[in-house]
Amino acid sequence: TGLTTFDGGFVNTASTKSAITYIDGDAGILRYRGYPIEQLAKGSSFLEVSYLLINGELPTPSELEGFTNKIQRHTLLHEDLKRFFDGFPRNAHPMPVLSSAVNALSAYYQDSLDPKDPEQVELSTIRLLAKLPTIAAYAYKKSVGQPFLYPDNSQGLVENFLRMTFGLPAEPYVVNPDIVKALDMLFILHADHEQNCSTSTVRLVGSSQANLFTSISGGINALWGPLHGGANQAVLEMLDEIKESGGDTKDFMNRVKNKEAGVKLMGFGHRVYKNYDPRAAIVKETADQILQILGVNDDLLDIAKGLEEVALSDDYFISRKLYPNVDFYTGLIYRAMGFPTRMFTVLFALGRLPGWIAHWSEMNADPTGKIGRPRQIYTGYTERDYPNMDQR
Length: 392
Ligand code: CMC
Description:
Blueprint: E1 21-24, E2 29-32, E3 35-36, H1 37-43, H2 46-55, H3 61-73, H4 79-84, H5 94-108, H6 118-144, H7 157-166, H8 177-190, H9 197-206, H10 212-224, H11 231-244, H12 249-257, H13 278-293, H14 299-312, H15 315-319, H16 327-337, H17 344-364
Antiparallel strand pairs: 1-2, 2-3
Helix pairs in contact: 1-8, 2-17, 3-6, 5-6, 5-10, 6-7, 6-17, 8-13, 8-17, 9-10, 9-17, 10-17, 11-14, 11-16, 13-16
GO molecular function: citrate synthase activity
Protein name: Citrate synthase
GO biological process, one term: tricarboxylic acid cycle
């Protein structure tokens, strides 16, 4: 076949060149466009980081103002699109609702589908950044049977999202600034992570010159799996299970180490980080702070810390270089903020959106870009004759 390499899972294959995000997995380093994640988490805002990832440079004050204004003007969903949510069962997981509604944007906003037209790309970018929080809040409202609230364009993106999620028409919702700040920072930490599964999916879908909305919808689906973004939900379910069965972390760890079917220490391990995930370090610190500020005393935080302590001093984890990843502590923060477990991966998607857009745009701007089309090593039958039905 002329093939010279096989690399299942793309463990050692670069699928693209990229100037967006740098990771040194052995040193635990993550930078967006050269800026260390720690500095961005401390000093920047999610919208500023979105601008940076997508445009390549930090915005000037007036650029940021222009970008923010545009996003705030596009937060409404088409009224017909709102009825789309009615078609889903009440107990639907919000992730397929989110990806379906994002895909439906290609049907409602047909004037911004051409990947080769910079103005249309800009418009679809703004629409996605503005509308995803509205869609996410409506997916939640649908699940609890509450009315949808319109976005309020005088509010910031995170503030607006929290109000549309937790607010009710008859009760003014008072947004807690500590929660806004913490959620904004968590979105920054999730904003990009080079060629992870969902980003690679966005690139592969987009490589056929599919429109931005459809490509992002593909990424949301890839994110849902428990080995990727779905891990934040899986971590909380794991902690809950340990608590329900008496809180014995040692017993659970033995099941993990014995490789009992389906039992992994969720929120641990990473394809690239063979050292502490720098995002996890920030999240862990934030979990302590935000739970304290909110006056939440969560047994699950103690169980999580207990698991980490056992893992970091255990040969199984040390020899395999398994450390907590970004998903290990995030769920505890989301839970303290009032989000149900099923919304956790939706929050990951809200954070990851600018990264997906940046990669899709970088790919489309490359004149040498080709459609993504991996090869295979065929392992099936060689040629054989078709037998008639009476010969089988
Ligand atoms: N618990 C127990 N053992 C593990 C774990 C874990 N969480 N992760 C990896 N291992 C073991 C694995 O069994 C293998 O052992 P052995 O060499 O004896 O067969 C070894 O460590 C190497 O693991 P791998 O599965 O070959 O590594 P990978 O790079 O293919 O997988 C991973 C990376 C993230 C999918 C995996 O570590 C995992 O399943 N972790 C749990 C799920 C999780 O937390 N995912 C979120 C990842 S970070 C954010 C994101 O991407 O969304």
